[in-house]
Amino acid sequence: MTSGGKSFQNRDIRLWKELVQGSDQALGQLRHCYFKALLNYGFKFVKDDALVKDCIQEVFIDLWNSRERVAEPTHVKAYLLVSLRRKIIRNRRTVHPWDDQAHAISDDYDFSIEFSPEWRMIREETLAHKAQKISEMLDALPARQREVIYLKYYQELSREEISAMLNITPQTVSNLLQMAYGQLRKRFSPTAISTLLSILFV
Questions:
Q1: Do 145 and 106 contact (CB within 8 A), yes or no?
Q2: I need a surface site. Which of 71, 124, 127, 171 has the fewest CB within 10 A?
């Protein structure tokens, strides 16, 4: 883990302990730190601004109400992301009871990846073409592979954090990443993949 990542983790642990002790300021700080990341992640499942924001609000309300009963998570960010994920799924089941996709999360569930418009402004035509191609290749991947790629490159989660969040083993995370990379390596070098992914995500 980088020194920056360790610093964030220490901050999160401190805020969590303060939250458990009844500090609403700690709750507010956690919300401030992760609201944008939660909002972006929520939009990957449902394109409904109001619903996602309501679900984020519910996550923090639930956290506050159950603060004395919830065990301290190893990774606070991953805990918040997976809480939002579950909240959105439950809300979709309530709002759209006829939607089969809302009742089962599998490799066929909907998880969209949107990319930053900046890459379209890249002057170098070759790089822009590569960015377009890798975007199309990502769209063709199974949803779970897209989600793992997103969590690694946009949310900057470690393999262990992704594992805890998605309730899969670290080895499964590695396998999913390797399968995704395997498809991308049919067209690009490992260095090109890392560079393009780092500029594509919003």
A1: no
A2: 71
| Separation of CA 102 from chain center | 18
Predicted local distance difference test score (pLDDT) of residue 108: 44
Please give the mean pLDDT across all residues of the chain: 80
Q: CA 86 to CA 31: how far, in whole Å?
A: 17
The pLDDT value recorded for residue 181 is: 85
Q: Which two tokens stand for residue 197?
A: 């992914």
Alpha-carbon span 69 to 183, nearest angstrom: 44
pLDDT digits (tens, 9 = 90+) for 37-57: 999 899 888 888 899 999 999
Cα separation, 43 vs 26, in Å, equals 25
Closest among 57, 26, 53 to 40, alpha carbons compared = 53
Helix or strand run (H / E) with residue 195: helix 190-200
Whether the model pTM is above 0.70: no
102-111, 127-136, 145-154, 175-184: least confidently modelled range? 102-111
Strand, helix or coil for residue 21: coil
> 150-165: b or e for each residue (b if 16 or more CB lie within 10 Å)?
bbbbbbebbbebbbbb
DSSP for 58-95, written as a single string? HHHHHHHHTTTTSPPPS-HHHHHHHHHHHHHHHHHHHH
